[in-house]
Each structure stands twice: as C-alpha cells, then as structure tokens.
Specification:
The complex is a heterodimer. Chain A is built from twelve helices and 18 strands. Chain A is α/β, with parallel strands linked by helices. In chain A, strands 1, 2, 3, 4, 5, 16, 17 and 18 form an eight-stranded mixed beta sheet that branches. An eight-stranded parallel beta sheet of chain A has the order 6-7-8-9-10-13-14-15. Chain A has a two-stranded parallel sheet with strand order 11-12. Chain A is globular, with a radius of gyration of 20 Å. The two termini of chain A are 26 Å apart. In chain B, helix 2 links the parallel strand 1 and strand 2.
C-alpha cells in the first residue's frame, strides 16, 4: 500500500488534546506521524486537505445491521459501506439478528462478513441471554473469544433484575460492558410514542419517561452492587440524566450513549402521524433534549451512537400503530450533530469528535479514537463547510427510513480511511 | 371551486370555528329531508362512496349509509371481516385499490389513530373519518354540537363535561376541539386512570368527583365505558365505577338546575349511566342519533363541493355545483 500524506488539514485528536494545522502520514496501515511540514516518503500519495478537519475515524457503538436474517433491508457489507460514508471507521452490531447472535459461531460469522466487506470495522455485540429470551446467560467467554466486544439484549429490555445482576458480574471476567435498552415493559406496553400532550392529542398510546428511568435506576444500582460496567443505550429523558449523573458521582461504572435524533427532535415530530419519528425510546420533550445536550457536554453521557435501524422501504408506510420503531442514522449522524450541536453553539468541534470517536472507543475498550503514531490508521477527513441536503435515495444503506429527509445539513465525511485504506470518498462513483 | 372544508374530514382539531358552524348550519335544511315521506334528494347523484369499516360499528355505519342514500349517492359497504383486509392486505394497498376503482369518497373507521389521515394523504378521493383509534370521531363531535345548539340555543358559554373514559375516547377528543372552538367551557370527569396526561393543557378542566362535575355543568356527555378496560386494570370493578362515577338520578336531583344528558352510544345501562337518566326528561340521546344523519349529509354534501347556500335548493333539485 502506498504511503498517504493528508496535507494541511486541521488535525483534531481528542485522545491527546491535539488541535492544530498539521500533516498526517499514514504508512503500512498505521499512523506514522502527525506534525507540521511532514515530508512525503517516496511514492507517497499526497492529498491536500486544507480547509478540512482530520480526525480519528468515528465510532458507533450501537447499530443494527440485520444480517443474518433480514438481508433485504441491510447487510453487514451495506451497513459497513453506509458507516464509511458517514465517517465511521468502527461500528458495533447489535445481536438482535435472526437467528440471534448469542454464540461464538454467530459472532464469528459477523467478524468474517466484516473482514470480507473490508469497509468500516464491524464488531459484534453478543446477546446477554440465549435467544434474547431473558432467561439464561449466553456464553460470554466463547463470544468474546470469537470477537464480541460487549453483550446486550438490545431491542428488548433485560426484564429480570437477577439476570441483569448476573450478567454484570459475569461480564467482569471478560472486561466487557453490558449494554441495556432501558424499558420497564409493563409501563411501556403497547406504547408507540412519548406519553405526553402530543400523544394525548393524537390518540396514541404513550410510553412514560418513568418506564426508562426505572430501568436506568435499577441498572446503575446493580452496577454499583456488582462493580460491573453497565452501558445505557440511547438515553432519552432528563430523569435518566439525573440518575446517571448521580451514579457517576458515586463512582459507579456506568457509561451512556445518546442518539442524534434524541438530541435534536421532540415528540412534536410525531405530529401528522409521521412514522419516521417513531422510535424506541420515543422522541421526548424539549426539556429532555436540553438536558441530553447538557449531559453530553458535561460528559454525564459519554457518547453519541446512531441506533441505526434499517427497515424495508414500505414498512413505515403504515398507520402509526402498525409501523416499526427505528430509523437509519449512519449517514446523517455526524451532519445532524455538527449542524445542531457545533454550528448551534452547544459543543466545540473537538468535543463532538471526542463524543463520536474517542469516548465511544474508550467506553467499549476498542482500538481507534486516536491519531497517536503507531495506532491503526482509522481516520476521517471531515468537510465542515459543505452544505448538503439529505436525500435518502442516495444512501449507501439499503434502507431509507429517516426523519431527516430533505434537511439541509452542514458537515460530512470527505474521506474515510480504515487501516490506511480509503473506504469512502465523497463524490466517488456510487456516492452521492 | 375550492371546497369549504378542504378535501377530507379527519378531525375537528383541523377545522376553524367558521367551518364547524358552516357544517352545523348546512345540516339544518337536511334535517327536514329525513322527515319527508320520500327521504331522498339528488345532491350526490352519480357519486360513489365506499364505507370502509375496519372495526365493528352499527350506529355510525347505518347513519352514514342513510345520509349517503338520502343524498342519492351509490354506496358500497366494506367490512374488515371477510374482506382482503383480513387476508393481510395493508392499508396502503387497500387505498390504492379503492383509488383504482375511481370512487369519489371513502368513509373510514379504523382501530389505528391516524388511519383516516393516512388514507386521505394517499388517495385523491375525499376521506371522512368515522372514527380512528383513540384520535377523533368528527361527525360524532359535530352531531353533539348540533344537539347542544338545538337544545340550549347556543354553544358559546355553555359548560359541557365529558364523563368517563376520556383516555380511550375519540368522541371525547372531537368534542373537546369542537366545543372549545365554538366558545364552550369543557370539563372532563373520571378516575385519573381514564383521563389522559396533559389533558388540562388543551384548555379543559378536570373533575375527580362526579358530584363536582354535576354541580358545574350545563351538559353531561357520558362516555361509554368499554368493559374490557376493567380487565386491563384501569378500574377495579364496574360496580365500584357506577357507585363512584355513575350518572344517576339521585346525583342529578341534588342540583337545582336542569342538566342536559348526552351519550354517544351504545350505552351500558347501570354502568356509566342510570336508566332513569338515559330515559329521563333531560336526555337528548335519541336527538343525537337523529341529528347524526343530518350532520353526515351536510359533511358529505360540503366535501363533494356543494355550496352551503345551495343546501336548501339542493333538497329540491340539482347536485353540487
């Protein structure tokens, strides 16, 4: 592979607190050097990235890639391609596939499909319980041996507190996080959106914020009891933020993620029964959005994750009650976050890079999230001036279900590099 | 010409006070049609209307059908059972198939909130919501308004309390919007388990005791308590519900003022309402049913493009302009 020099960009590496104009030399798939006025080795390809930002590749610890089982809506390859287009060099695939990723063979399959695709890295997350049934623990050790980086029953809450406790205890041996979708099922049963005024007006069954918060409270208590690491998926309420803040203050090992849509949209986006605003947890109230933004800035919430959830093109073409939960997010996550949070004055760009790369890598103990010399060359070059309009038809994902269609956004990946290899280049053939 | 109500009637939330008044005023001349020996006017001659009922309904479906027939429309009834819907056809496919048959209007009842709007956004025909989930039942709201206006001479300033299962009631939501837009004061009364979150933010007041509601209201609109709610744990028993929230003759006698009693039907006698109240002198429950046909005739006529000032003339000859 030819050496590659990224010349003259603004290099932001939150792992080292680095933020200045510099060149980045990539050699043999690794970051060889970062500094001003680097010479280009013989035969090197030099790319002028002045005006752009060079950052560690983005990391998404929560995606659904639907393979095996639902390959018509997404595959590991199409998901990894969408990830690359979104600037992600690493994503973690949730185990609610069909069959469930709850054993070493299933985990190994995802690893092999990821290697075969050769795009963004896809790390499998194994199921907490066999078949995600919430009864018996899966073989964490075997799955970690095959490449799993965490366990989760995401898509379903872990109902049994005993199971959650044993998962947190057992996961300590392997030093992996236990990621939980916090939802108290008897309170949320039948709900299709946030319980509040909009649900009342639309005549839709709501899911109260307390349904999430009860489980957040339980999970941090169990993490405190066991010393295990609990990772809270897609936190959506201000009450959850308060519980997490309190737990962190007490030294509980808890990390948390928030999605771009929970940071930017509210229950009001469900007006007119827009099924693209149907997700679980549901879009909440403006006060929740404000609390989530503050928590992200403060570090109470560690990272942004997309919860990329592809669905067939016609699945959302239904009455609100009948449409599935979830939206795709890999190809809009950075732009939505940049436009709303950085251009909107909530976060600095280095903070956003931290929350989308270094912090999630740290939370899941993944390589990446750094431009330290010697690290694998997982790099994104971000164009933070180009304004573009979201056109789902141009997505690399096989699915189109997004509430951001038609939105004018700023910021996107100009170049995505994994292991020193360019896996996405904006405007390249097949691109948008 | 532009239709005075737009293409569809999805809910009263979307209508202006003027549009609601227009419907009520247009219903007046149509009342008389139903009193004639020959109950038919040619206003919708040649129009094809499908009554698409994904949920069981007797009263509303028959009321719509009479309204359509008395306006000379050609009608087809489709019920969910025995139709392609039961075979797994999606709502969007149903809509496309209806559109392909070049119909003029669809009256839809569906268990999912938003289904009428969904259909209206996907077909060119006019869509009338005959009840969608827990969202709205606009023609019921309109006939309730017409009945209050008939009985009390006005709606502005009247105090109307909706009693019972507001949480699951589309009738309640349509009543709230219609009444508020026309200047009524609206209350809701029932156990908190059956009153939706944030209801006060719509501009209604909440009563936790039926005695307070009776003391306050000019009109009680008593909602049907669906008996399966008890199984779902919203109330402990029907017996207790009747004892605490039942609209009984004894409770009404304690107030000096006459209170108009309404019920959208079908009634559970002895559950939410005492038979002596339902059959009593202040009950306008059967007037509601009569007005239902006139209101639905008015809605059909206006959506078909009929000019309100011609409603009278339409009774005699000609169709919508």
């Amino acid at each position: 592979m030819r050496p590659l020099v990224l010349r003259g960009g603004r290099v932001i590496d939150p792992s080292r607190g680095f933020d200045q104009a510099a060149d980045v030399l990539i050699q043999d798939g690794k970051i060889a050097a970062v500094g001003a006025g680097l010479g280009a080795p013989d035969g090197a390809e030099v790319r002028d990235v002045r005006g752009h930002v060079v950052a560690p590749g983005l990391v998404d610890v929560h995606v659904h890639l639907r393979e095996p089982g639902n390959e018509d809506v997404e595959t590991i390859a199409s998901g990894a391609r969408a990830a690359a287009a979104g600037g992600f060099t690493t994503v973690c695939a949730m185990p609610n596939t069909d069959p469930v990723t709850d054993n070493q063979a299933a985990v190994g399959f995802i690893v092999r499909q990821s290697v075969r695709a050769g795009l963004a890295r896809v790390h499998p997350i194994g199921a907490i319980s066999v078949g995600q049934k919430g009864e018996r623990l899966s073989e964490f050790g075997e799955m970690v041996g095959a490449g799993a980086v965490a366990v989760s029953d995401d898509g379903r809450p872990v109902v049994s507190s005993h199971l959650m406790r044993t998962a947190l205890e057992y996961a300590r041996t392997f030093e992996i996080p236990v990621a939980d979708h916090c939802e108290e099922p008897t309170l949320a049963a039948g709900g299709v959106m946030h319980e509040g005024l909009v649900a009342t007006r639309l005549g839709l069954k709501g899911m109260p914020a307390a349904a999430e918060e009860i489980m957040v409270g339980r999970d941090v208590l169990l993490a405190g009891l066991t010393g295990g690491h609990v990772h809270l998926c897609h936190v959506s309420t201000r009450g959850s933020v308060a519980l997490i803040r309190n737990a962190k203050d007490q030294g509980v090992r808890v990390t948390a993620e928030v999605t771009p849509h929970h940071l930017t949209l509210t229950e009001r986006d469900c007006e007119r029964y827009d099924t693209h605003a149907k997700m679980n947890p549901p879009l909440r109230e403006a006060a929740d959005v404000a609390a989530l933004r503050a928590a992200l800035k403060e570090g109470v919430i560690d990272c942004i994750a997309s919860d990329h959830a592809p669905h067939a093109y016609d699945a959302k073409e239904a009455a609100f009650d009948d449409a599935p939960f979830g939206i795709v997010g890999l190809e809009t996550a950075f732009a939505v976050a940049y436009t709303e949070l950085v251009a909107g004055g909530v976060l600095g760009l280095p903070e956003l890079v931290h929350r989308m790369s270094t912090a999630p890598a740290a939370a899941f103990r993944l390589p990446g999230g750094t431009l330290k010399p010697g690290a694998a060359a997982d790099v994104v070059v971000l164009d933070i001036t180009g304004r573009w309009t979201v056109d789902p038809a141009a997505f690399f994902s096989k699915s189109r279900n997004t509430p951001f269609a038609g939105r004018a956004l700023t910021g996107r990946a100009a170049l995505t590099i994994v292991d020193g290899k360019v896996v996405h280049q904006a405007g390249a053939p097949g691109g948008s | 010409m532009t239709a005075p109500l737009g293409k569809d009637l999805v809910g009263l939330e979307d209508l202006s006070a003027d549009q609601i008044r227009l419907i009520l005023d247009t219903a007046e001349p149509f009342k008389e049609v139903s009193e004639r020996p020959i109950k038919k006017v040619p206003a919708l001659r040649g129009k094809t209307i499908v009554n698409l009922f994904f949920e069981a309904s007797t009263r509303t479906r028959i009321s719509f059908e009479f309204a359509e027939k008395r306006l000379s429309a050609d009608t087809v009834n489709v019920a969910a059972s025995g139709s392609s819907v039961q075979k797994g056809e999606t709502l969007v496919d149903t809509a496309r198939n209806l559109e392909a048959m070049r119909i003029d209007m669809v009256v839809i009842r569906h268990p999912s909130s938003g289904a009428a709007e969904f259909l209206g956004n996907r077909i060119r025909s006019n869509v009338i919501n005959a009840g969608d989930g827990k969202h709205e039942h606009p023609t019921q709201g309109l006939l309730d308004l017409l009945t209050i206006r008939d009985k009390l001479g006005k709606i502005d300033g009247i105090k109307v309390c909706l009693v019972g299962d507001v949480l699951h009631s589309r009738v309640a939501r349509s009543n709230i919007w219609g009444l508020l837009k026309l200047g009524a004061e609206v209350g809701v009364c029932g156990p908190d388990t059956l009153l939706p979150r944030g209801i006060e933010e719509l501009g209604v007041c909440r009563f936790r005791r039926i005695e307070e509601a009776i003391e306050w209201a000019d009109v009680l609109n008593v909602l049907r308590l669906q008996l399966e709610r008890m199984e779902m744990g919203f109330i402990p028993s029907v017996r207790e519900y009747y004892r605490v929230f039942g609209v009984t003759a004894e409770r009404l006698e304690k107030t000096m003022r006459p209170i108009t009693i309404m019920h959208p039907g079908p009634m559970n006698r002895g559950v939410e309402i005492d038979s002596r109240v339902a059959d009593g002198p202040h009950s306008v429950i059967l007037d509601q049913v009569t007005n239902g046909v006139a209101v639905r005739m008015a809605v059909l006529y206006l959506l078909a493009g009929g000019r309100p000032e011609l409603a009278d003339a339409a009774k005699r000859s000609g169709g919508p302009e």
